[in-house]
């Protein structure tokens, strides 16, 4: 604003303003630095892994079973191998199969529980107690779920060290996260939508089915996929229920009670081996795992944008 | 306040449309009945000593009134006087609030809607509702209007015809005829509210409850809604909450004045309420001395 009028009774105390502004700038710098630390660390890690995997990540790596001989992984040797190159094909299939089963269980149990808690359960002490404890369960270390899976599924329910035991254990692990995020999506559906539906003579079920769920589905799906992309990288729980460290044939798709392996297990196994070259193989495995993970996240973002009825 | 020329204004809206149909259906009225008088029309809704509580707080105190069929009944009063609560107790929308509790009778066609054998969902299929803020679903215009038909299982016949009729009656068809498949959320506020009215009348209820349907709209959209309300009363019973007294005077046949504390202070023909109220506090409220 211009100050054509008498300026004497308006004090331009610039020093005070400047001091505050400096403080603001310092705070901004702190925040930028905090952001950068995360990004730089992530980029450094990615670059390191990709450089390490460069030249080792081939189509054969994706389509052949692993080998105990490190030379089999080196593309330079592919021509003169008696058996065929080494890869991680069985683990990729195992991981995908594991995650698909986990997704099915999680969808049914997680969304079901969220709908009950959000739409049906009375607002009383018991409900609040249950909700608080679901939130607490989200913070339990994954190894504990592994032990639980070992005791409940492998031993008590006699599933053996099987794919289904792994999938159920991973389901338990991400269930609290999925319930909480699904509840939030349901809660975000405006109450006016429910009222409009009831006012039009809909029953509770019709309201949930036709109005609440369609509004909440993008949020619910995003939550589930992000939780699944956490589950696909988990090693500790499936280690506890007895996932194989190495498999030479993919798990039987028709037999979920058979043995299984998964990418993180194989990567861990490779990383443990003494030969230097195996570090390259492990890095190649990591790149594959990360790619699948990023793809899942991309799908989550796509669903959120595509199916949001308000966009 | 608009001048009504002193005469009972019910003549213009309700009587003309009904002449010749007396006694032919249960909705008809007699020619001999005094126009706009207490017995001008059959009672469709009757409240007897209705109390509503929210937790320990009493929102309505012993409300007794009779709402006539096929007329516009306005509920007016200052904020927090319980007029919306009364409206929502008619179709049991208050059931959705955990702490709400109702005592006394609210009779629809003589049957207490709070009897144990009354299903609130079935009740709401007879008594449609339009809310304060336009709340169309994030669906197409067509599906918004068809929603009531679908959930009520009335979508087996000519859904398109019913949807078009409802849009026509809601004075919206001309504006949206070419875009029935586009989202209801793309409409303007006033159009959205008329869409909500179309949604409410599509399944052909008997009563339409309106909770300040124009309070979120601009004056042009408001006047469209008002015209619509008068037309709707030719076929439906309309109960409308408003805190705009001019609006009540313009569109209603009967007016109920609620004052603070959840009490119904006066209920009479709209002309009488606005020209010669019995109660002093009603007069003060109407003339803008408080509220």
Description:
With 311 residues, chain A is mainly α. Chain A has two domains: 14-53; 89-306, MetI-like (MetI-like fold, Orthogonal Bundle). Chain A is built from eleven helices and no strands. The two termini of chain A are 39 Å apart. The model of chain A has no long low-confidence stretch (mean pLDDT 86). With 291 residues, chain B is of the alpha/beta class. In chain B, strand 7 (207-211), helix 8 and strand 8 form a beta-alpha-beta unit. In chain B, helix 4 (141-151) packs across helix 5 (159-169), helix 5 packs across helix 7 (189-201) and helix 7 runs parallel beside helix 8. Chain B is globular and about 55 Å long. The two termini of chain B are 16 Å apart. Chain B has a single domain, classed as Rossmann fold (3-Layer(aba) Sandwich). The A-B interface holds A 122-123, 190, 192-203, 206, 210-211, 214-215, 309-310 and B 91, 93, 96, 98, 121-122, 124-125, 128-131, 133, 135-139, 147-148, 150-152, 183, 185, 196, 199-200, 203. Chain A: The chain crosses the membrane at residues 27-51, 96-117, 137-157, 163-180, 211-232, 281-303. Chain A: This is Phosphate transport system permease protein PstA.
Task: Give a concise summary.
Chain A is mainly α and 311 residues long. Chain A contains eleven helices and no strands. The longest helix of chain A has 40 residues, at 14-53.
Report the sheet-strand fraction of chain B: 15-25%
Strand content of chain A: under 5%
Structurally, the number of domains of chain A stands at: 2
Supply the CATH architecture of chain B. Answer: 3-Layer(aba) Sandwich
Structural class of chain B: alpha/beta
How many DSSP-defined strands of chain A? 0
Order of helices and strands of chain A: HHHHHHHHHHH
N→C terminal distance of chain B: 16 Å
Q: How many helix segments of chain A?
A: 11
For the record, what is the CATH homologous superfamily label of chain B?
A: P-loop containing nucleotide triphosphate hydrolases
**What is the approximate shape of chain B?**
globular
Which regions of chain A are unreliable across 5 or more consecutive residues at pLDDT < 50? none
In the sheet with the most strands of chain B, the strands line up as 6-7-8-3-9-10
CATH superfamily name of the largest domain in chain A?
MetI-like
The average pLDDT score of chain B comes to 83
Judged by helices, strands and strand pairing, the structural class of chain A is mainly alpha
Major sheet summary line of chain A? none
Q: Indicate the radius of gyration of chain A in whole angstroms.
A: 26 Å
Oligomerization category of the chains in this entry:
heterodimer
Average of per-residue pLDDT values of chain A: 86
CATH class of the largest domain in chain A: Mainly Alpha
């Amino acid at each position: 604003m211009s100050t054509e009028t008498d300026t004497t009774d308006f004090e331009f105390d610039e020093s005070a303003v400047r001091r505050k502004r400096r403080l603001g700038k310092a705070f901004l710098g702190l925040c930028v630095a905090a952001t950068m630390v995360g990004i730089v660390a992530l980029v450094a890690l990615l670059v390191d892994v990709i450089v390490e995997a460069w030249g080792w990540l081939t189509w054969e790596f994706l389509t052949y079973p692993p080998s105990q001989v490190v030379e089999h992984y080196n593309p330079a040797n592919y021509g003169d191998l008696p058996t065929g190159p080494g890869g991680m094909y069985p683990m990729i299939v195992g991981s995908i199969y594991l995650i698909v089963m986990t997704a099915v269980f999680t969808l049914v149990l997680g969304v079901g529980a969220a709908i009950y808690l959000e739409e049906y359960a009375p607002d009383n002490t018991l409900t609040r107690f249950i909700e608080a404890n679901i939130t607490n369960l989200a913070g339990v270390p994954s190894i504990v779920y592994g032990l639980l899976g070992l005791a409940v599924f492998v031993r008590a329910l006699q599933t053996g060290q099987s794919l289904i035991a792994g999938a159920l254990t991973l389901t338990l692990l991400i269930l609290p996260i999925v319930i909480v995020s699904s509840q939030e999506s349901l809660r975000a559906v405006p109450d006016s939508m429910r009222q409009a539906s009831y006012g039009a003579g809909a029953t509770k079920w019709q309201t949930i089915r036709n109005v609440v769920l369609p509004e909440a589905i993008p949020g619910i799906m995003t939550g589930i996929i992000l939780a699944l992309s956490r589950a696909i990288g988990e090693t500790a729980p499936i280690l506890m229920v007895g996932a194989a460290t190495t498999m030479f044939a993919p798990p039987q798709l028709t037999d979920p009670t058979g043995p299984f392996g998964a990418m993180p297990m194989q990567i861990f196994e490779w990383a443990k081996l003494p030969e230097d070259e195996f570090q390259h193989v492990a890095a190649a495995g990591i790149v594959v795992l990360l790619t699948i993970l990023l793809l899942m996240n991309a799908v989550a973002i796509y669903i959120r944008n595509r199916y949001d009825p308000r966009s | 306040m608009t001048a009504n020329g002193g005469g009972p204004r019910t003549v213009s809206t309700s009587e003309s449309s009904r002449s010749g149909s007396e006694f032919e259906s249960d909705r008809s009225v007699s020619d001999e009945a005094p126009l706009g008088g207490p017995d001008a029309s059959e009672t469709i809704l009757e409240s007897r000593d209705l109390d509503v509580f929210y937790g320990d707080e009493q929102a309505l105190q012993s409300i007794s009134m009779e709402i006539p069929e096929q007329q516009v009944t306005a509920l007016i009063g200052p904020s927090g006087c319980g007029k919306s609560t009364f409206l929502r107790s008619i179709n049991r929308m208050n059931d959705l609030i955990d702490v709400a509790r109702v005592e006394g009778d609210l009779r629809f066609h003589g049957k207490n809607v709070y009897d144990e054998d009354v299903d609130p969902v079935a009740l709401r299929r007879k008594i449609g509702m339009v809310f304060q803020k336009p709340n169309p679903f994030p669906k197409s215009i067509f599906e918004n209007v068809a929603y009531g038909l679908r959930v009520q299982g009335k979508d087996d016949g000519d859904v398109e015809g019913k949807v078009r009729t409802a849009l026509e009656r809601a004075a919206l068809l001309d504006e949206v005829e070419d875009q029935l498949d586009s989202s209801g959320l793309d409409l303007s506020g006033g159009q959205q509210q008329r869409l909500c009215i179309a949604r409410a009348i599509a399944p052909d209820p008997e009563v339409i409850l309106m909770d300040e349907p124009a309070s979120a709209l601009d004056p042009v959209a408001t006047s469209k809604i008002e015209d619509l309300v008068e037309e709707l009363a030719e076929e439906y019973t309309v109960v409308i909450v408003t805190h705009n007294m001019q609006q009540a005077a313009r569109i209603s046949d009967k007016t109920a004045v609620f004052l603070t504390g959840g009490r119904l202070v006066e209920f009479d023909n709209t002309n009488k309420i606005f020209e010669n109220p019995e109660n002093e506090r009603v007069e003060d409220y109407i003339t803008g001395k408080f509220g």
